[in-house]
Prior knowledge:
single chain, alpha+beta, nine-stranded mixed β-sheet, eight-stranded antiparallel β-sheet, 24 helices, 40 strands
Amino acid sequence: MCGRISWRSGFLHRLKGSPLVAAVLATLANPSWAGDFSAGDLIGREVFADATSGSKIIGRIADLSMTGDAVTALVIDTGSGRPTLSFEDAQIFTQNHEPHVVASEAKLRKAGDEPEAKLYSKLPTDKKAAAVFGQQAMNVTFRGPDSTNNLFKFLADFRKLAGDHSFLTREYVVRPGDTVCGIYAANTDLPVTRAMCPESAQALHAAINPESAFAVYDKVQIPQIEVSPSFFDQKSTSGRGQTRANIIYLRLPVSAGIVSAFYSNIELSTSPNVSVGFTGAGAGVQKTYQTVNWERPTSSVACEQGAGVSEKSIYYLFDWLSQKGWKPSDEIKACAFDCASLHPDNPGKCADIVLIDQPLQSTSDLQSVQNLLKDGELADTLASASAASTCEVQPEGIDHAVQHGTHLASIIGSKWDDHGFVGMSPGLNLFAYPWTKGTSTANITSLIHNRTGIDTEGSPTFSEFGPQIFVFASHFIGPRETTKPAFSYPREWRDGSRIKPGGEARPPEVMRTLPEPQSIIAASKSYGMWVVSAMQKDGEEGIPEALEINSDLAFSPVNLGDLPNVIVVTACDHCKEGDASIWKDAFFSEQFVHVAAPGLDVVAPVGNGRVAEAGGTSQAAALVGGMVGAMLNCYDTLYRENDGQLELKAGMLKERLQYTSKPIFYDQTDLRRLAAGVIDPEAAFLDPSKNWVKLAGSSKYETFEPENDVDHWCQKHVSMVNQDLQSKTSSTGNILRMVRTTIPYAPDERFWAIYSDVPNVPGKIIRFDPRTFGDIETEKQPLLARADGALLAPKDFDDLILAHVLRSGPCPQ
C-alpha cells in the first residue's frame, strides 16, 4: 500500500468489504491516502468553483507547473485564457475514484509565461512518470465514547467556516419516511443508523441546507466525506448489545485559505477529544537534522581492527569509563547485544528502536535493519553488504545530505565483531523510518499507530513486538510552514517562537498537545518511548541562538519533555568529571532537557568500509536511544507491567536514566541547562530492583544482602551547604541517590549531588546543586539504618543508588 497510485485504479473501491479495509481506513494518513499521486491524472480535469453538486465549472487543467517532480501550480484553460492557480489554493477531493478539483475563481492569477522547463507537458517521458502531487488535507481524529456526536458537531462548525468549499456534497430528494440519519446511513460513510442518531446530525444538515424545511420531495445536499470509524461493542443499560464508534478518522481536503481560517478559529481547531494532523501539498519541506559540520579530520584509529579494539569500542565514546577500566559484565553484554537470540520464540521480550531519519546506506556494520513505509508498515530489509576489506576515513566528516541517518543507526546498532566500532545496543531490533522532504505529520501519526497499536481494539500486549523506542533528531513541521525556521505549530497559534494561549481553558501547555502527532505521543505513553535531540542553534535554518525549552516553545517534540515517555537529550562538550560542560549551542532547560551524552567528535560507520566524524545533539540522542533500549532489554520485567508482558513503565525508566547519570556539572550556567547529568552506562545497568553502594575509596558498586540492606533514613531532612555557603535542606523521603562529585576549583572539598523523586509526577526528578555537610564531624553522623541495625554515615560511602525512596525513622546515636 505504498508508492504512487493512479486515481483511476479504483483502489478504495476494490478494498470495500475486503479484510484489509479496516487496516487501511484505520490509518487514513498512510501513503495511499496522503502520499504522492501521478501528476498526469490531473491533466484535463475540470476545475469547479465549489464542492457542491452541480457547481460551476471554471475551466480545465491544461498543464502543470513543476518544481522538481512535484506540482506547484495548475495552468487552467478557462476558454478565454490560461491563468494559473497555486497548487496550495486548490482542493483535491476524491469522487468516484477520480480526482475532483475545486478552487475559488478569486485565487486565479493572471496568465504568465511559465518557463517551458517547468511545464509538465514539456517533460520527457521518464520525468512525466516521476511527476507527483500530494493531496493537501487535514486528518482529524475523534476519540472517546462521544466521538460520533463530536464528528457531526465538528462537521457542522467546519461547514459554517468554509461554506461550500468545506467538503463534497451531492443532491438528494427527500422521500416519505426519510430522516436525516436514515439518509446519511444509506447514502454516506458517516457512522450512524436510523436508531443511533446524534443530535448534532441535525445541526450538520442545517449547516449544509440552511433554507431547507426537510419536506418531502425537497432537494437537499448530503455530505460525501472520507471517514472511517473504528468500532467496539458496548452493552446498553437495557442489556441489548450495541455497536458504537470509539475512534473516528476524518480526512478533509483543504486549500491554504481554509487552513488559515481553521487555525484562526481557536474554538474549532482545539475542539475537545479532537486532534488534527496535516498533509501538505507539493514536494514538502526539507527536514533538518541536529548535527553540525566539523572541519577537523578523523583519527585513523577508527579503522584499526582486532579483538581488543572491538572490546574497547563498546564504550569508547565514554572516555571516563575507558579511563577507569569499566567493562560491561557478560550478562549485560548478552541482554544488550544479543537480546533476540536469547528469546527466539518471543520477540516481544526485546525492545524495538525506530530511527526516524534519512534512509540508510548499506553497510556491513548494519544487518537485519528493517525499512518502514511512510505509514509505519514494514517495507523491505536494508540490503546487507559483505564485510569491507578496507577502511576509509572521510576527513571532511559526514555528508549531511545522505549519511546522517546511517551515522546515527551505526551509533545505535553497529554489530559486534572484530572491526573497530560496536554500537550501543546491537541486539536491538532496528527499524528505519524515512524522515524525508515529503514526510508529513500525518505520516508520523500513522507510524505511531502502527508501531504501538494504541488505537486498536483493546490494549497492545507486545505479544508480537516489543516496546517501541522512537529516536528522533529533528522537529515536526507545522501546517504550511515553508519558510525558515519551520515551526511545529500553525502560524495562527504562534507569537514568534512561542505558542499563544487559546483562551483561559487553553494555555500553551494544553495547546501544544492538541495537534497530531503530539496528541498521539501523549496517548501512547505506555507503549512508546521517545528519545529526541534537544535541537541547537542554526543560522541557516533561521535559529540564530540557542532557545530555552518549555511548554510554550513552538518546536516539538522537545516541548513535550515533561511527558513521562519523552526524553530530551543534549550534548556535553567536555564529558570528563572535573572538566565537564554542556554544549552551549544546544537548546536548554532545567526541566525539559533531561540528560547529556557525548555528542561531539563522534566516529561511526557511514557506508561500507567508510567511517566519518560528526557531532551535535543528534549523535547524543542516538547514544541515549541505544542505551534506553539496552536497559529495557536487560530489565524488561521491571520496566514493564505484568512481569514484562504488558505496558511500559515509561516514567520509571525515564527517572532511572536520569538519577543514574553522572552529576558532573558544577557551573551554574550548565546546571540550568538540563535536569540531571551525563548518562552513565555503568550505573544505569545496575539491577534497578536493588540498592547499590560504592563504599568510600572504592571503584566498584556493591549491592546489599537482604539481611543488611538499607532500611530507613535516620532523619526526615538533611541539611547541607551549597557553593554560595547557603544552608539548604532536602527531604530524605524523596532521595533516590547521593553521590560525591568533583569541583575543579575546590578539589579538596567533598561535594555531594542529590537526586530526588517528585511524588506523583512520573518521569520527573530534581537534582540539587553540589553541596557539602560543612565539616568532617557532620559526615560522621549516622544517616541511614540497615536491616541488621548497623548504621551508615556519609563518610562511609561515595555513592548510594536506591531502588526506591525510603522512609525515615529513629536511629541509635
